[in-house]
Amino acid sequence: MKTRFTRTVTGTAVLALGLSLSACGSSDSGGTGASPAGEESGQFHVLVYGDATNKVEKQIVDTFNKTSKVKAVLDTIPGADYQQKLQTIINTDQAPDVFFNWGGGSIAPFVRANLLLPLDDYIAKDPGLKSNFLPSVFNSASVNGKAYGVPMRGTQPVMLFNNKKVLADAGVTPPTTWDELIAAVQKLKAKGVTPIALGGGDQWPTLMWFEYAYDRIAGPELFQKALDGDKQAWAGEDSKKALTMLKQLIDTGAFGDKFDSVKFTDQGSPTLLANGKAGFELMGSWEYATIQDFNLKFAKNDLGYTNFPSIAGGKGDPNNVVGNTNNFYSVLKKTKTPKAVGEFLKLMYSDEFVKASLAIGNLPTTTNTEKFLDAADNPDYLKYQFNLVKQAPSFQLSWDQAYPPSGIEPIHRAVQQFFSGQIDADGFIQAMQALPAA
Amino acid sequence: MTTIAPAVSGRRRTKSLGSLEMGRPGFAWAIPATLFFGLFAIVPLILVAVLSFTRWDGLSSPELVGFENWSALLDDPIMIKSLWLSLLLTVLGVVIQTPLSVLLGVWAAGHQRNRAILSAIYFIPLLLSATAVSVLWRALLDPNFGIPAQASWLFGNGNLFGKQATAIGVLAFVSTWQFTPFHTLIYQGAARAIPRVLYQAAEIDGASTVRQFWSITLPQLRNSMITSMILMVVGGLTTFDTVLILTQGGPGTDTMISAYYMYEKGFRNFEFGAASAIALVLVVVATLVSLVVVRASGYDKMRSTLEGM
Fold first, then answer.
1. Which residues, listed in sequence order, are joined to residue A142 by a DSSP beta bridge?
2. Considering CB atoms only, which of A14, A91, A416 is closest to B252?
3. pLDDT tens digit sequence for B233-292
4. Where are the alpha helices (DSSP H) in A303-433?
5. Nearest C-alpha of chain B: how many angstroms from A117?
6. Among B234, B246, B292, B293, which would you mutate to test the A interface (most chain A Cβ atoms within 10 Å of its Cβ)?
7. Do the bridges between strand A142-143 and strand A146-147 make them parallel or antiparallel, or are there none, so unpaired?
8. Nearest chain A CA: its distance from B196 CA (Å)
9. To 10 degrees, the CA torsion angle through B121, B126, B131, B134?
10. Distances (CA, A) of A200 to B32, B166, B169, B170, B248
11. Structural domain A43-155+326-383, CATH architecture
């Protein structure tokens, strides 16, 4: 009797654990929506992140299929777990031929595993496949000097957004230098509003402050060096200066005292900005569309935007931008229809693609984009962004996307802990030095 | 009324006698369950054990690395911290939920007016998925637009997710809100099964309601209490969705419980070997804790509370 009960209870515990573990596993392999690729020579599979932008991808695939003998099949993975699901199928028979990615670190592991096709041959045959895109964007999908991705959505630079009314009430003009930013923060604080809205609960919005501070002070070279494996780069003077300035900004009360409980993803921080409870927010260009969804009037009339302020004595060009350069199509080596795929990729700089993207608010990064901007819905905002990206000497890919996926959580954790005061500058430097090399 | 008690104990006695006469059922009866259990619990468990000795990112084939994951885990301060946090959350769950659900269960077992309606309403949180519940509370606890903004006397500046103590408090509160109804149900059933005759006798002896609760109700609920506590312990150690949605282990690693740490290692960092090692630790710890609870509570020699009646 005694042993039976023990066994039953232990068994139940083990079963519960086993089930919870296997549940984790199955959620990952299930629902990919991808059907087996390469069974027929007559088609190839294109795998994309499932969201509203799929409209454009569908249209381009349809256009391609009208003239091509080999048909393209569009598969989507819905939800935010795209990278996880991709990673589990990419080396199996279910792998697509062409797939959506974020360039940089998101494809580096695949390149290392020798799964991806370098695009050099395509570019040699059709130089337009490279020259028709803005170089700063195109290059962010290069690994070890070889091109692996063709831009296929819109660019998303990070900008300093502001609430024009709140700024006017406090007698503040959008800052062009760091000192002006500090002065603006103090004026806004005196007015009783949170100077800068920050969705600290999501962690990646906090990271944007580091990306810009480091870029303005040290230029993009510091991060590139660190990414290439020089861990001492994090311990240098410039790195310490950037951290000191950020700390100063936090201590001034720029972000209020509860940013760790605020999120961007549930509209917490953009609502603060739109409701006049905050003066600024540093955010990707999707801020406009996000705010448009719940406060169209504010987005149209009172949402201001500028590039990140310059920092006196900094080595970085004040025209540099950071953010998501674009999304990319990469090609798997084992595709059976490389020629058709090459033709398909050419559509990514076609007029039709640009027009369809602009129609849903995405800003393509092709050189012919400019021609169509006037016809778009909010030409001012799009033109500002396009020129920002075009004029930028460097477009730094977000740190958490430049590093391979295993670096994402440690980076997010370090920026959160630095902002909430759990670690100091030395702690942050150590955390960054512990990151895996790209 | 007095006939109920003998009837109940009589039924029990015949049942146990009956099973003795029939002997144990043949092994064939257990085959479906054994197969199912083996396929979905034992086999994955063995695979996880094997994986924990490899390095695997899901791309190439797993590469044997000996004890590398295990030695890294032993030196990993986050792992140790996560185990303590898992235990803390489990203990908090038991300590908070048990008294609440005993009181509610005993109350719900009565025959007061409106009791059925209130019980039904109170039961609703259990019907919602843990994910939905977490999303709901995340919105309700928003520092600028949620409850904390209206009740600063209670929540201070409302930075609930920015400090360890309050973040753990939120996690404990949300699981209490969701799972207390379930345990209430267990106690309600158990309280209903307590023979009326005990209370009648106590009333004749002049015992107050409070005295009756301590001397009759609670001792009679002992076995249900152990059942409910074991369920709480197993549930607490495998908590995952509330952490995923409410805190993501933050601020920093302050709510990084083992199950979430395992998920992060496996499905965010793609270090499946290291994640498997954490999973095994979790299995071992949970088994040990269950054994301790079973031993300490005497669940293994659980006796009828109706003995001597």
1. A147
2. A416
3. 888 888 898 999 899 887 889 999 999 999 999 988 888 999 999 999 998 988 888 888
4. 338-346, 351-359, 369-372, 379-391, 399-402, 408-419, 425-433
5. 16
6. B234
7. antiparallel
8. 30
9. 60
10. 50, 16, 19, 17, 12
11. 3-Layer(aba) Sandwich (3.40)
Domains A43-155+326-383 and A156-323+403-433 share a fold: yes
pLDDT band at A61 (very low <50, low <70, confident <90, very high): very high
Q: Tell me which chain B residues have a C-beta less than 8 angstroms from the C-beta of A199.
A: none
- Structure tokens given for A401: 């996307």
A26 at B interface, C-beta within 8 A: no
Q: How far is CA A252 from the centre of its chain?
A: 28
What residue of A is the nearest CA neighbor of B135? A266
How many Cα atoms occupy the beta-carbon half-sphere of A63 within 13 Å?
17
Instruction: Report the Cα A196 to chain-centroid distance in Å.
Output: 21
Indicate if the pLDDT at residue A92 is higher than 90: no
C-alpha separations of A262 from A197, A198, A201, A298 in Å: 9, 7, 5, 21
Instruction: Flag if A21 and B161 touch (Cβ within 8 Å).
Output: no
Residues of B within 8 A of A13 (CB-CB) are: 234, 286-287, 290
Q: For residue B27, give the amino acid letter.
A: F
Q: Are B300 and A2 a contacting pair at CB < 8 A?
A: yes
Biggest alpha carbon distance in chain A? 82
The residue of chain B nearest to residue A28, with distances taken between CA atoms, is B267
Instruction: Look up residue A142 and give its amino acid.
Output: S
**How far separated are the first and last CA of chain B, in Å rounded?**
14
Nearest of A90, A63, A68, A64 to residue A77 by alpha carbon: A90
Nearest Cα residue in chain B from A416: B252
Q: Determine, for residues A405 and B268 on separate chains, whether the beta-carbon distance falls below 8 Å.
A: yes
- A293's CB contacts (< 8 A; 6+ apart) are none
Architecture of the structural domain at B77-299: Orthogonal Bundle (1.10)
Residue A258 to residue B268, Cβ atoms within 8 A: no
Q: Is the pLDDT of residue B102 over 70?
A: yes
Cα separation, A424 vs A427, in Å, equals 5
pLDDT digits (tens, 9 = 90+) for A371-406: 899 888 788 899 999 999 999 999 999 998 899 888
Instruction: Note the pLDDT of residue B20.
Output: 52
**Chain A environment of B141 (Cβ under 8 Å):** 261
- Does the structure show a pLDDT above 70 at A36? no
Tokens coding B192: 């209903």
- What CATH architecture does domain A156-323+403-433 belong to? 3-Layer(aba) Sandwich (3.40)
For residue A309, the distance in angstroms to the closest alpha carbon of chain B comes to 28
Q: With bands split at pLDDT 50, 70 and 90, how would you rate the model's confidence at B309?
A: low
Reported ipTM exceeds the 0.90 cut: no
Interface size A-B, in CB pairs within 8 Å, comes to: 148
Residue B255: name the closest of B46, B119, B86 by CA.
B86
As a whole number of angstroms, the distance between CA A434 and CA A428 comes to 10
Residue ranges per structural domain of chain A: 43-155+326-383, 156-323+403-433
Instruction: Single out the residue of A365, A320, A384 nearest to residue A161, CA to CA.
Output: A384
Extents of the domains making up chain B: 77-299
**Which distant-in-sequence residues (6+ apart) come within 8 Å of B87 by Cβ?**
B237, B289
Helix (H, G, I), strand (E, B) or coil at B223: helix
